[in-house]
Amino acid sequence: MFAEESDSWLKSILPFPGEYVVEETYVGDGDVRRGPHKSVRDFDENDSILQLVFTPRIRLGVLRLGAEWERFSFGVPDNAPLPDTLQSVNLVIGLDTQLSDSILIRVEAQPGVYNSGLDDLSDDFNLPFVIGGTYIYSPDLQIVLGVGVDVERKYPVIPVAGVRWKMARQWVLDAVLPTPRLDFEINRDVTLYAGANVKQTNFRVDDNFGDAHGIPRLNHAILSYSEVRTGAGFDWKVSPIVTFTGEVGYQPYRNFDFYRANVRYHQDGGAPYGMLSLHGAF
Amino acid sequence: MKFKMLESSQRPFASASIILLLLLLLARSTSARADAVSELASFSIFNKVDLAQLAKSEVKTAHGSPMSNPRFLAVQSCYVAPGSPAQQIEALRRWDPTRHRELKVFLHSDLPSNPTAASFEKLKNAPDNGPVRLLVAATQKLSPDLQISRDEAKKFSAGSAEKPPGAMPVSVTAFWTDVLTARAKSFVSSGTSGQPPYDHGGKAIRASEELNGLLREQEKIRRQFSGLLGATGIGRGAGSLRPELYWELLDVDDQGVVTLGASYSRSGANETYQAADALYYASGGYYVALTLYQMWPITVEGKASTLVWRGDMISAPSLGSLHGVERLGSESVMMKQISKSVTLFRRDTSGGR
Questions:
Q1: For a 10 Å CB count at each end of chain A, is N or C smaller?
Q2: Is the pTM of this model over 0.90?
Q3: Out of A96, A101, A102, whose CB is closest to B324?
Q4: Fold topology of B16-111+210-350
C-alpha cells in the first residue's frame, strides 16, 4: 500500500519517465604500492553515486537526459601522494534508438567536471562518451558491441563486447561491462546475483597537488582511477519503481595511474566491501 | 518487378471502344492502388509506402503510436502477399501455427459456435515440457499469478493427483476445461463484456476494458475499424458478426498459458477486407491481445496480390515495469516475432517470395 502510494507520488512530481540511482559503497582498508619502497597502507574508501536520468520517448527512440554525481573518498594519510577525493559532476545526454527490429543503438555522452573537488573547475571539463549496439538475436540472447571514448584516458578508445543470455527460466547471464552478472531469479521480486563492477574514470587533480606532495609534475595532472569489485548480492523489488540492492564482496584490483607523469600506485592488498543501493525506473 | 494493373492490348487494331474501356479500367485500377496507399497512410504509422519496393521486400514493421498506459504495447506491420484479400483471409483461417515450433504454440484447436467441455479434449494431450509443468504447478497451488476470477478459483479441487499419459493431472485438466468452456460460452453470448474479471490475484482486470483501452489510445485505428469492431464481441457484448472461435496452449515467457481467441472478418468496398483477431482470455503472461488486418487488392506483375496492414496490440502486466531501453528492446522483440510469424505464414501460404 505504502509502496503504491509512494510510486504514485513520485510519478506525479516528475515530468517525464526516467531512472534513478542512489548508491553507497564502503571498501575496507586496502593498500597500494609504487615500486619496491613507496606505498600507502590501510586506507578505506567510500564511493557515493547519485543519478537521475529522464527518458522521454520521442519519435527517434528514447532520449536520455539527466545528471550524475559520483564521489570517491579515500582515507589516505595527509602526506600520501594520492588525492583523498575524486569527484565527477556530469550531465547525461544520450539516445537509445532502433536501427532495425534486431538492432538497438545507444549514443551517450557524459560532459562534466572530473576532478578532486569543486574548488577549481577552470579546465577540469571532460566529455567521455559511449557508442554501443545491441543485436537482438532472440528474446533470450542479445549480443552487445560498443566503444567507450575518453580523450583523457591512456587508451582513448576501448572496445567493449558482451552477451546477455537467458539460459533457463530463472537464470540470466548478463556478461556486459561494466557490471557483468549471473542472475538467479528466486521470484518476481527477488533476484540473487554474483558479478563484478569494473570502474575506470579519469580525473584531474588540483593545480598544487604535485607541489604539496613533492612531485611538481603532478600539478593539475590527469589521474586514471580504476578498480574492480567482485561480489554477490540481491535485488529486492520493493515496488514497481523502487529496487533495493545489497552486495558484499572483495575488491581485488585498484590502480591510481598518473600515466602522463609516469607515477602509478597499484594494488598491494585487496579489501572487502559492502554496497547498498536504491534504484529504479518510473 | 513492377506493378501493372492491366496488360495493355497487343492487338494493333483494337476498336476505339475497347481502348477506351481499357483506359478507363487502367485509370480505375491505378486509382485503386493509390487509394490503398493513401488509405494506409491515413490511419497507420506508414505514411509513405512504396508498393514496388514493399512487394520485393519482407514484412515492414514499425512501433505503433506511444501509449500512455505502461502495460500497453503496439506494433504495426505491412506487406504484400500473393492472391486476393479474400484468399488471404481464407489462408489466415486455415493457418496452423503449431506447425512451427519457434512460434511456441503447443496446441491449437478450433471451437464450435456452442463450445462444450469436449471441445477442450486436446488438453489431455498437452506436451510434458517445462512451461506446461509450470502451468500445472501454478494451478495446483492456485498461484496469484493465475489470471482467473475468485469464483473460478473456488472451483478448483485438488482431487485426484492421478496423472494420465501427458503432462496434466486429471484435476488440472478438469479445472481448465471448466474455466475455458464457461468463458468461451460467455463470449458467444455476451462478448468480452461478459468475461469474469481477473481478480483472483488482487486488482480486478477486465478484458473488455483492456481491449477498449488499447483502441482508445490509437484513435485513427479505432476509427478505421469502428464498423467492423462494432459488429464483434471485442470490447462489448456479443456482436452481429459470427466469430471463428479457437483456443490454444502456448508458451509465454517460459510459462504455459491457455488462451481463448475469436476471429472476425468482413469484406468492404472494392474487394477490400478487414479482420480482427482477439485473444480475449489468457491464464497468464498477458491480459489480452488484439490483431487487426486491413487488406486491399493490388496487382503485382500482372498477378492479383494483396496489400496487408496488420496492427498488433497487447496488454501485459510485465510491460508495466519496463522503461527506457528495456521497453524499446521489448518492442523490438515483438516486432521481430511478428516479422517471423508473417514470414512463416507467407511461406506456408505462397511458397515464399
A1: N
A2: no
A3: A96
A4: Alpha-D-Glucose-1,6-Bisphosphate; Chain A, domain 4 (3.30.530)
